[in-house]
Amino acid sequence: MKTLPLCPVCKSPLVKRNGKFGDFWGCSMFSKTHCKGSLSPYKYNALLETLNPTNNGNNKDNQENPINKPEKTIIFSKYQEEIIRVFTETTKNMIIRACAGSGKSFMLVQLAKRIPSTKKTIFIAFGKDLVKDLSPKIPEYCIFKTSHALGLSNFSRFMGSKKFVVNVNKLYDLLKVYMAENPTIAEEVKANESTIIRIVDLIKEYMLDCSMESISYISDKHTLVLNGNTSIMVNAINWLYTTSLASLNQVDFTDMLYLCATGIVPCETFDYILVDEVQDFNACQIILVEKSLKPGGRIIAVGDENQSIFAFRAADSQAMTKIESHFTCVNLPLSICYRCPQTVIDFINSEFPGISFEGKPNNTKGILESISTQQFEDIVRDGNLVLCRNNAPLVKYAYKLLSRGIKVTIKGREIGTNLINLIVKIEKKYNTANLNDFLSSLSDYQIKEGEKLEALGHTRKLETLNDQIEAIGEFAEGVYFTSEIIDKILQIFSDDNLEGVIFSTVHKAKGLENETVFILQPSLMPSKSAKTEEDRRQEQNIRYVGYTRSKHYTYLVP
To answer: H-helix or E-strand containing 125?
Structure first.
């Protein structure tokens, strides 16, 4: 008979329940004592495995259980020892400045295990994949969520019994209502639909007011162009912003953070907050963390500002500095890379002298060398990672391998979606009749839109447009209909089933590592379209991220 996990709070039996956000295991005494002890399915299954180890003829001591298993003796580095000392011997807030491959998440797990079970603790991860991977490794009394999941749980508690839905298209749906109510300007608003929605999202993510000054700032920073009557556009933006805050029967991803950050939705508070990848946080996420910390509580934030590459998503490139200052944090380094071979360590120290980047003891030498296109095609294998700054070269090389019967996947479903949206836009705009007509219209659009963007000085947006059109051109090889281009895109872009040779932009490869990494057209890093100081810094960071994914072999394919 199996031994079942018990409630982590009162040790009563657990029962499987279905909540608004999926299944979970809740305390069977909730209706009587209101005990809110619970376990996620991941944690429950891990505990179940721990309590009931499978013995397949092997010594049970060799069975690996994810929770409460006897740990191997860990020899901590001098940096890790100092982080643990400050954590255990003081009550100070801490910011850990890590390098690539230094075991940021491992360090936070070690700290989580040293927090008393009586303290209310949350581990905030940047992505849901990390939540899935690390959830079985942290103590059962530690809550583990992404910042969006934390915001959503706050919102659900705030709404109580009132019904609401998560609607990622909330702003699109609301803007349709506005256009229906204002038919005389509907066509002009429709022509600017995606830009209006993007501006409203960014106003929230930057925690700005919905003023003309804020709209101008965002438009300039993100090269967003509003075509048509300025007054009509500004009125539409103001209506959409105001109405979205009043429409609490539905919530999108930006709302999950913004409603908490503004105080519209109260935040659950914690004694300890452990935060990973803080270099990618935006203003909303920083304030959410602040509002989630109890008076006298502690925050331990980990990040690598040299891997800050998401400014285009409104990530604050100064997030770590702001967190350090606001919470009066002790600044601690984590500077040993346990991933990269010595050739990469030496390259990074040569090319990025301002980064503290040390190799692990007894590090392997590894390989970092340039190879030809033919050599790439000959030696690339299933499971290898192929990176590039831009999308078009990825598509070009992926189809070279496909033509030889080699399975490939390009990481990034939304990249494919953006390509399809551009195809549909050209077909509608030019009313194309066949593939040749479409390709001619695509070229015409590239010239006219390119001239417009160049005149406005929007070089980054022009680079993105050219990259997208070049990628579509690669997909158009050997097909007869635009529908075949779309089919190709749908087949090759994915985020879930990464099979065969894995192609990825450097942005999408953040957090990944591989024994063998190929970098296509390394001269694209840094991009020559970067004009501002912030853009140039982001481009250097992209280059740094690209070169630090390899565990052994790094090949540059010009």
So the answer is: strand 121-125
| Number of DSSP helices (H) and strands (E) in the chain, helices first | 23, 20
Q: What is the pLDDT of residues 279-300, one digit of tens each?
A: 999 999 999 999 999 999 999 9
DSSP state of 548: T
Give the pLDDT confidence score for residue 21 in this predicted structure.
52
Where is pLDDT greater, at 406 or 531? 406
DSSP H helices, 21-160, are 30-33, 41-51, 78-89, 104-112, 128-134, 147-159
C-alpha dihedral over 95, 98, 103, 105, to 10 degrees? 40
Residues facing 330 on adjacent strands = 94
Gap between the Cα atoms of 22 and 505, Å rounded: 32
Instruction: Give me the helices (H) in 68-223, please.
Output: 78-89, 104-112, 128-134, 147-159, 170-181, 186-191, 193-205, 212-221
At residue 78, the 3 state secondary structure works out as helix
On whether the CB atoms of residues 538 and 510 are closer than 8 A, the answer is no
Kindly list the distances between the CA atom of residue 498 and the CA atoms of 144, 409, 413, 504, in Å, as whole numbers in the listed order: 25, 6, 11, 10
Distance CA 550, CA 252 (A): 36
For residue 228, what are its two tokens? 């048509």
| Cβ-proximal residues to 118 (8 Å cutoff; 6+ apart), any chain | none
Q: What is the CA radius of gyration of the chain?
A: 25
Structure tokens at 81: 């020892």
Helix (H, G, I), strand (E, B) or coil at 338: coil
Q: How far is residue 211's CA from residue 217's CA, in Å, rounded to a whole number? A: 10
- Cα-to-chain-centroid distance, residue 505: 13
β-strand 550-557 against 367-370: which pairing, if any? Answer: parallel
CA distance 236 to 238: 5
pLDDT higher than threshold 50 for residue 63: no
DSSP string, 373-435: HHHHHHH--TT-EEEESSHHHHHHHHHHHHTTT--EEEE-HHHHHHHHHHHHHHHHHHT--SH
| The pLDDT of residue 553 is above 90 | yes
- Lookup: tokens for 75: 């020899």
Q: Please tell me whether the overall predicted TM-score, pTM, comes out greater than 0.85 for this model.
A: no
Contact 474, 392 (CB under 8 A): yes
List Cβ neighbours of 369 (8 Å cut-off, separation of 6 or more). Answer: 554, 555, 556
Contacts of residue 347, defined as CB under 8 A and 6 or more positions apart, other chains included, come to 368, 547
